């Protein structure tokens, strides 16, 4: 899979972001996207083939793997990357809409199409709320699907067609757990950055409103 579209999206949104937003983009691009492409994808590449149970009963190994890994860690991570990045499209679409509207009317309708004020500010805040929400949802999903943020070395399975309780072994559990902790840590960092940017923009907006009223009152 090519991740070029995600890189282009993040690059396009960068010019409309605050300083905190640019840090978020750097974290997503360097510590999540590049780590995923360069290392994590290879670790989970043959996870099904390397999942072994101490029995040769036909179908037993497959149902046990499906039970303990209903969704692959790496595919869920990829889906998370896509979902937390796409709300940024709202900002790009909003700016494109304003620029297109100015072209149709052949006149200046906005101070600056990319300035975070009015409608664009609301769109930017909505995108931050959506990104934070997706991060939290996926962290809860990881926790619920895998019974915590851990990768056990040995799992016991007694699902039919297994004739009895069998031992199944997960390949490279320590390495996978390290990357899982890294995933959780970067997700938490992104949540903190999103909430910080959201608070900063709201605080800045109300300060601006207050100063305008103050100046008008004293004039």
From TrEMBL:
GO terms for biological process: cell-cell signaling. InterPro entries: Connexin, Connexin_CCC, Connexin_CS, Connexin_N, Connexin_N_sf. Keywords: Cell junction, Cell membrane, Gap junction, Membrane, Transmembrane, Transmembrane helix. Its main location: other. SMART domains: CNX, Connexin_CCC. The chain crosses the membrane at residues 21-39, 77-97, 118-143, 178-203. GO terms for molecular function: gap junction channel activity. It comes from the Eukaryota. Residues 42-75 form the Connexin N-terminal domain. Residues 134-201 form the Connexin cysteine-rich domain. It is a multi-pass membrane protein. The keyword Membrane applies. It is found in: Cell junction, Gap junction; Cell membrane. One of its GO terms (cellular component) is connexin complex. Belongs to the connexin family. PANTHER family: CONNEXIN (PTHR11984), GAP JUNCTION BETA-7 PROTEIN (PTHR11984:SF26). One gap junction consists of a cluster of closely packed pairs of transmembrane channels, the connexons, through which materials of low MW diffuse from one cell to a neighboring cell. A connexon is composed of a hexamer of connexins. This is Gap junction protein. It comes from Probosciger aterrimus. The lineage of its organism: Eukaryota, Metazoa, Chordata, Craniata, Vertebrata.
């Amino acid at each position: 899979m090519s991740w070029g579209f995600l890189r282009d999206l993040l690059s396009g949104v960068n010019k409309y972001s605050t300083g905190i937003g640019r840090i978020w983009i750097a974290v997503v691009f360097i510590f999540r996207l590049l780590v995923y492409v360069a290392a994590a994808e290879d670790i989970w590449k043959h996870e099904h083939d390397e999942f072994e149970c101490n029995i040769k009963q036909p179908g037993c190994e497959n149902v046990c793997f499906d039970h303990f890994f209903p969704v692959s860690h790496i595919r869920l991570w990829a889906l998370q990357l896509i979902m937390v990045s796409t709300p940024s499209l709202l900002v790009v679409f909003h700016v494109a809409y304003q620029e297109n509207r100015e072209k149709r009317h052949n006149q200046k309708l906005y101070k600056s199409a990319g300035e975070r004020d009015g409608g664009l500010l609301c769109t930017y805040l909505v995108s931050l709320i959506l990104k934070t929400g997706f991060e939290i949802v996926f962290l809860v999903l990881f926790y619920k699907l895998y019974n915590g943020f851990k990768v056990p070395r040995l799992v016991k399975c007694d699902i039919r067609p297994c004739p009895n309780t069998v031992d199944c072994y997960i390949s490279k559990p320590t390495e996978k757990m390290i990357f899982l902790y890294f995933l959780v840590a970067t997700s938490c960092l992104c949540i903190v950055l999103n909430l910080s940017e959201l608070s900063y923009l709201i605080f800045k907006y109300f300060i601006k409103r207050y100063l305008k009223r103050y100046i008008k009152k004293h004039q």
